[in-house]
Amino acid sequence: MSLTSKEPIDVFTHAQPLSFFLTKVYGISSDYNGAYTMSLRDILSESMGNLQESCQFNYMFEIPWLIQQYPASFRQKPLLCVHGFQGGQKAGLEADARKFTNIKFCQAKLEMPYGTHHTKMMFLLYDNGLRVVIHTANLIERDWHQKTQGIWISPVFPKLKSGPSPTQGDSPTHFKRDLLQYVAAYKAYQLKDWQDHISRHDLSSANVFIVGSVPGRHMAEKKHWFGHMKLRKLLNENGPVKEQASKWPVIGQFSSIGSLGASKENWLSVEFLQSLATVKGTSSVPLAPVEFKLIFPTVDNVRTSLEGYPAGGSIPYSINVAKKQPWLHSYFHQWKSEGRGRNRAMPHIKTYCRPSPTWEEAAWFLVTSSNLSKAAWGALEKKGSQLMIRSYEIGVLFIPKYLVENAVFECSSKVKEAGQKTFVLPYDLPPRAYTKSDKPWIWDIAHKELPDSNGNMWCPS
After folding, report:
1. Has 145 been annotated as catalytic?
2. Do the annotations mark residue 6 as ligand-binding?
3. Which end of the chain is less packed: N or C, by CB atoms within 10 Å?
4. Which residues does substrate bind (predicted)?
């Protein structure tokens, strides 16, 4: 599928029913920037719909650049930016927007220490319906330039004929219920209009599940509404059957790592893997045979990347955290994306997946803003009676039977060979384990052994 002849709507249509995209990357062969790829400009283009107003949930914003990504005809349309900034950062954001009279802000409440508003989501209201986009990129220029980022784009959801309803026009995946539940958790009056817009539309064509996180200590039935316990519940209800997949490996791929405790038993290999390894009907599967493979860039992956060492400025793993969890590094695998032409485009995408031992099928796939951290996914407290989450996050879970009427996805990163129902992965399988000389990228120490692809060293201040 050639890049030049196609409108964004054609690229979108070609990628159905999975509707999973990577961002376009500057400096790679155009062969890899055609099918299954979108720029921010493409997503916001006139070809995708006649925009009336929009809402952008994100962590970081460059307001003047963001406005330039909208077509000239849409740059005056109302735009609500949902962020978590406080104090000076909030003042800076508002100052950047002063000359754009169409922009309003909603500050997400962050009452838990170390929490962030990390969600990356767009609501695009057209004259003929509503589109929802869930992705992994900050709304800043460098995030859309030479990084590997993931995007899910919904169909245009038409207006309900019967007027607003929180329950009518829901999908078999309860997309409407869960989206309204997520937005309601902000308890923000600025989002009231968007809650109404969602209620007024028919979201029954949504074919993915929402996995969101919102700050708080979630107990009773709410324990299963968010974070890894939401994923556990969804896999318990819709996951692979035990006979088929209980021994299949699990992959986690991310661009940042939090403090996970003194040993794998603290959280990673018990609580978190328990959720990821859940099969239909039970989450109490023996975890011993489940291989957990984590994909995280090595120093060399970053050094030889398109951006060179500065790519590591978006891969925040700090030396103080790394020193406390050396046990984690035995799980690590290199970033490799030959099939997508993105070996040198460092990942800011975050994905979790259950591939088969042959690496040709997958039982499910999740793209999300959630990195490998308790803050994002939640940690059980009080003998497992409550889930404590610090941050706002959102992702979508792809389950084969809702998308391809099969028990598994065929999957491959080889975009040039992909069929209509192939899940085109962002990285190559099988994952390649770190060699003896590989070290995980750590962003706050100097890297001066060798220069990067642009001839520079890394000397963080």
Report:
1. no
2. no
3. C
4. 120, 350
Per annotation, catalytic residue among 117, 118, 197, 333:
118
Active site residue 348: yes
Question: Average of pLDDT values for 179-198?
Answer: 98
The domain locations on the chain are 8-199, 218-424
Task: For residue 245, give the amino acid letter.
Answer: A
- pLDDT of 283 higher than 80: no
Q: What pLDDT sits at residue 5?
A: 60
**Number of alpha carbons in the 13 Å side-chain half-sphere of residue 45:** 15
pLDDT tops 70 at residue 190: yes
- What mean pLDDT do residues 327-331 have? 97
- Distance of alpha carbon 81 from alpha carbon 122, whole angstroms: 9
Taking only the tens place, the pLDDT of each residue in 365-395 is: 999 999 999 999 999 999 999 999 999 999 9
Per-residue confidence at 284, pLDDT binned at 50, 70, 90?
A: confident
Question: Residue 346 forms beta bridges with which residues?
Answer: 147
Question: What CATH fold (topology level) applies to the domain 8-199?
Answer: Endonuclease; Chain A (3.30.870)
> pTM of the entire structure?
0.98
Indicate the average pLDDT of the chain.
Answer: 96
**Catalytic annotation, pick one of 117, 201, 333, 348:** 348
218-424 CATH:
3.30.870.10
- Please check if 439 is assigned to a binding site: no
Residue 264 pLDDT level (bands cut at 50, 70, 90): very high
User: Which pLDDT band, with edges at 50, 70 and 90, does 3 fall under?
Assistant: very low
**Burial class of 431 by CB neighbour count within 10 A (0 to 12, 13 to 18, 19+):** buried
